[in-house]
Structures are given as C-alpha cells and as structure tokens.
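pasting input
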Amino acid sequence: MANLSTTYMGLQLKNPIIAASSGLTDSVPNIKELADNGASAIVLKSLFEEEIVAEMETSLQKMTSSGFIYPETFEYYEQTDDEEVSSKYLKLISDAKKAVDIPIIASINCVTAGEWTHFPKLIEQAGADALELNLFILPSDFTRDQIANEKIYYDIIQEVTQKISIPVALKISSHFSDLGRTLQNFSTKGIGGLVLFNRFYNPDFDLDSLEIIAGNILSNPSDISMSLRWISIMANRVDCDLSATTGIHNGESVIKQILAGANTVQIASAIYKNGFEYIQAMLEEIEMWMDSKNYNSLDEFRGKLSQSKSNNPAAYERVQFMKHFRSYQK
Ligand SMILES: Cc1cc2nc3c(=O)[nH]c(=O)nc-3n(C[C@H](O)[C@H](O)[C@H](O)COP(=O)(O)O)c2cc1C
C-alpha cells in the first residue's frame, strides 16, 4: 500500500495534509477531531501581534503601579492571569500537545518586528513543534516604498529565528514585485518553510446598505492556480521546504501540489465545506492514485512537474492566453 509519509521543516508527518490555521484549529476538541480524521499536523489559529502588545501594555501599567519595573516581571504577569489571550494561547498549545500525537504548529499574525517578539520563546516553552508567521504587509502605505516594506519581513524573520530553536515557517501572500527572488531570499534567512500563499480577508461592497462587507471567506477549487504555479517555479530553488495553501479541495489537488514540489499542503475551506471526515476521503483518493501509478512513496513523484525539471519551462510562466484565446469559440 502507498506510503504517504513526508517531512516538513524537520518534522516527520504521516501524510502531507495539514489542517491550516483557522477557526477550526482554535480548540482542543476540534484539534482532536482533525487528528482523528487523518490531519498530519495542526496549525493553530493565529494569535495577533496586537493582542500580545495590548496585553503587554496592560501588564506594564500593573507593574509600574505596583512598583515592578523590571522586564522579567512581564513573564510573571503573563503567566499568572488566566484571562489573558496570550496565556490562553500557551495553554491551548500545551493542552493540544497532550491531546494528540501529531505536531502542533503555533501561528502569529504579525506586521512589525516590535515588542511582541519575546512571545515565540514562550510558545516554544509551551511545547509547540514549530511556529508559523502569518505575515502580510499590505502595500497600501503611501509613505513606505517596496524596500521598506520588504525590510519589515526580514526584520521579523531575524528577530524570531534568533530567539527560538523550533522551526519557523513564513506564510505570506504573492504581493511582491520581485516574487521569485524575494521568496528565494527569504528562504536563506533561517526559516524552515514557506507557505504559499495565504488567503486573506477580502472586502466586498453591499450595494443595498452601501457598506463594506466580507467577501468570499472560503476558497474554491479554481483558486489553486496561483500557488500551483509558484510552488512549481520555486521547487528546488529555495533553501527551505514548501507548503501549499489555497484552493486545495480534494485528493487530486494535493497530488498536483506534490507533483509541483510541495512537502505538504494546508487546507481549511474544504474542511469547512465538507466536515472533518473529508480529510480521510482526500487521503484515500491520493492512495488510490498512487496505487494506480505504482508509486510507493511521495518522493517518487514529488517535484516531477516542477519548472526546474520540466522540458517546457515557459509553460509555467505564460500569463497571456494567446493561442487559447484564438481557439476559444463560443
Ligand atoms: C475562516 C478562516 C479563518 C482563517 N484564519 C487564519 C488565521 O488565523 N491565520 C492564518 O494564517 N490563516 C488563516 N486562514 C487562512 C487558512 O489558513 C488558509 O491558508 C486559507 O484559507 C487557504 O486555504 P483554503 O483554500 O483551504 O481555505 C483562515 C481561513 C479561513 C477560511
């Protein structure tokens, strides 16, 4: 029978399907369901940098009002107040570790290399197997140019990787003007994995109330194209592992991402739409395909359709329709 095991950032996983960070991964009962139904690792719902910083400010006020002014007292206050979001997050990590025997990857949504960067150490101490940085600097600040925007990413990577020894993944968007080289450069800065690409909250307009509302929250199968193209292009060209996310809705799309060169995939929408058991169905689909092709392990076909191994590399870079437009008739 086909062996679906894989490695990701040095972690041994029994298969390539990781439960992506979402509302499905913020409680121990859900994490148990995901593990019982075959997820090979869990990325916890992101804790937001702003939440950590807001709590630090509250702690600082308490410290100064009670005469404590030394930085070490931060830890004391963070770990003794059960109501604080960050303490709850650390407890979720340690409870999840006790409840399941698959890796638990913590996640922080961050936009600066500021005061929050002491927190990854606490995440490591709580038992997390890895940390994913969910990082998106929206390039809409007209006072900051592209170089200044990218510097924020490098600063965050440096701050975090030097403070912890568990692997760090970078989950980002495709909004970079020099995407290929930028991803390559990130991969040389000590991270263990790149997660391509996050799907963010997208605004839409309500034409009745004339208000801004949430756009499509869940992805569709056709949303896979962007990450499939870039996993294919970046495979064998980065110094870290690759994890694909967005638009992976069935076993076939997992197979495509492995063929492109991914170590793992991260799924959320397919589970929201079809339930926890659907992971098992996806795994069966992968196994059946592997058996039909006589593949015993993922390594036998991983990266087979990556650009660097292709005899038609231009096909991965084609962005205009050309002949498809000409031949497309109504
Ligand atoms: C309801 C919801 C909440 C999410 N919350 C987070 C989050 O806290 N942190 C994060 O990095 N990604 C978050 N994501 C993004 C997912 O982890 C995933 O990368 C994205 O949805 C693309 O995968 P999919 O097409 O399988 O949904 C969220 C997605 C959804 C649908």
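fyi DSSP finds 13 helices and 13 strands in the chain.
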